[in-house]
Amino acid sequence: GKPDGKEGLYFGSEIDDDNHPKIRNKVPLHGRNQFPSVEKNDNEFRHVILTHMTAMENLGRSIMTGLALSLKLDGNFFDKNYFLDEPTCLFRIFNYPASFCQQKGNENLWGVGEHTDYGMLTLLLQDDIGGLQVKLSHDKWIEAPPIPNTYIC
Predict the structure, then answer these.
(1) Are 12 and 86 in contact (CB under 8 A)?
(2) Residues 5/99, Cβ–Cβ less than 8 Å
(3) N-terminal to C-terminal alpha carbon distance within the chain
(4) Angle 107-109-113 (CA atoms, 0-180°, nearest 5)?
(5) Cβ of 11: how many Cβ atoms within 10 Å?
(6) Which residues partner with 92 through β-bridges?
(7) Statement: the pTM of the whole predicted model exceeds 0.70
(8) Are the beta carbons of 33 and 93 closer than 8 angstroms?
C-alpha cells in the first residue's frame, strides 16, 4: 500500500511510579512520556499536554456515561465493566506536511490511508484545512468538513 504522509507526537497515560502495576507489567502506553524539547519552557509544554489529556479523558467518560444511559444501562456501566483502573488513553498530534505530497511521485498520496480506529472511543479535533473522509456502510466515502470548536466522536 501507499505510505502515510504524516509526522506526529504520541503520548500515553503518564505514570511516574516505577512500582505501579502497569509499569511493572509493561502495559503499553503507560509510564513516563518522552516530551520533546521545545523553545519555550519544557515544563509548560508537558503541563499543557497532560492537562489536555486529563480533560479529554473526562470528556470521554462523560460521553460513555451518556451512551450507557441511552442504552438504558446504569450511567457507570462502562466505568465498572471496562475502566476499572486507568483506561488506556493515547493522545496524538499530527502534522500532514504539504511538501510530502508535492514531491515528485507522491502526487496521489494521502495523509493517512484507510483504517479503522481501535479502542472504545476516538475524539478527533480537526483543523480548518479539513480532508477527513468517513466511509459509510455501503462503501461510499463522504467528506467530514471541519466544524469550529467541535470534536468528532
Answers:
(1) no
(2) no
(3) 27
(4) 170
(5) 19
(6) 10
(7) yes
(8) no
Q: Name the residue among 94, 92, 104 with its Cα closest to residue 11.
A: 92
Rounded to whole angstroms, the Cα distance separating 45 from 126 reads 20
Dihedral sign for Cα 149, 124, 114, 8, please: positive
Give the model confidence (pLDDT) of 58-115 as tens digits: 999 999 999 999 999 999 999 888 876 677 788 988 887 777 666 666 655 667 777 7
Secondary element (H or E) of residue 94: strand 91-95
- The 3-state DSSP class for residue 119 equals coil
Our separate counts of H helices and E strands in the chain read 4, 8
- For the chain, the structural domain boundaries read 7-114, 123-153
What pLDDT digit, counting tens, does each position of 100-130 carry?
A: 666 666 655 667 777 778 788 999 888 887 7
Give me the amino acid identity at 65.
T
